[in-house]
Design brief:
CATH topology of the largest domain: GTP Cyclohydrolase I, domain 2
Helix content: 40-55%
Order of helices and strands: HHHHEEEEHEHEHEH
Strand content: 25-35%
Largest sheet: 5 strands, mixed
CATH class of the largest domain: Alpha Beta
CATH architecture of the largest domain: 2-Layer Sandwich
Structural class: alpha+beta
Number of domains: 2
Mean pLDDT: 91
Bound molecules: zinc ion
Shape: elongated
C-alpha cells in the first residue's frame, strides 16, 4: 500500500470528529489532494518577489500627479483560521519621476494576498512594496474586507466589513491621497 501523504493523514484526523457514516462517505472524495492543491494556490504568493514584479515595469513620468486605482478585487486567507477574507483594495500614490505599470500594482496585491495574512499586515505590505518599487513621494492604501472566520462562526458579524489603511511617505501628501480613496 502506498504511504499516506501528510494531507491524507490530516484529513483522516479531521474525519474522526464526524459521524462514522459521514466519514466513510467523505473518504472517497479525493479531498486531500484537492485541498492541498487549493492550499498551494492560495499560498503561491510566497514564490513571488518585488524585483520580479518591478522588472521592466517602471516608466519615467515627470508630471507628479496622483495615480489612483480603486476597487481592485482582494482575496486572501486569514493566517489564524485558514479561512478566506475578501473585498476590495484601493491604492493611490504620488509619483516621484516614475510610475509603475498598473498591471504590476495589481500583481503586487496578488503576491501579498496569496499568502497567509492579517488584513492589517496585507495593507502595510502593499504600501511598503509600492514605495520600495517606485520611490513615490507618498502612498495610501485602503483595504475593505469581509472575514469568513468571523461570519462562519456566527458571532453576529455577518456582512461586517473591516477597513484598514496604510500611509507611507510625506505625511500631508499621504493624507491627501487617502481622501481620494
Ligand atoms: Zn481569522
Amino acid at each position: 500500500m502506498a504511504p499516506q501523504s501528510d494531507a491524507q493523514l490530516a484529513y483522516e484526523r479531521l474525519l474522526l470528529q464526524l459521524p462514522t457514516t459521514e466519514a466513510q462517505r467523505l473518504t472517497r472524495a479525493g479531498t486531500p489532494l484537492k485541498a492541498s492543491q487549493a492550499f498551494s494556490y492560495i499560498t503561491s504568493g510566497y514564490t513571488e518577489n518585488l524585483s520580479a514584479i518591478k522588472k521592466d515595469g517602471l516608466f519615467a513620468q515627470h508630471a507628479d500627479d496622483a495615480v489612483v486605482l480603486r476597487d481592485l478585487p482582494l482575496h486572501s486567507t486569514c493566517e489564524h483560521h485558514l479561512l478566506p477574507f475578501f473585498g476590495y483594495c484601493h491604492i493611490a500614490y504620488l509619483p516621484a519621476g516614475q510610475v509603475l505599470a498598473l498591471s504590476r500594482i495589481n500583481r503586487l496585491l496578488k503576491m501579498y494576498s496569496r499568502r497567509l495574512q492579517l488584513q492589517e499586515r496585507l495593507s502595510a505590505e502593499i504600501a511598503d512594496g509600492l514605495l520600495e518599487m517606485c520611490g513615490a513621494h507618498a502612498v495610501a492604501v485602503v483595504t475593505e474586507a469581509r472575514h469568513l472566520c468571523m461570519e462562519l462562526r456566527a458571532d453576529g458579524s455577518c456582512g461586517a466589513t473591516a477597513k484598514c489603511t496604510a500611509l507611507r511617505g510625506e505625511t500631508s501628501s499621504a493624507r491627501a491621497l487617502l481622501s481620494l480613496l
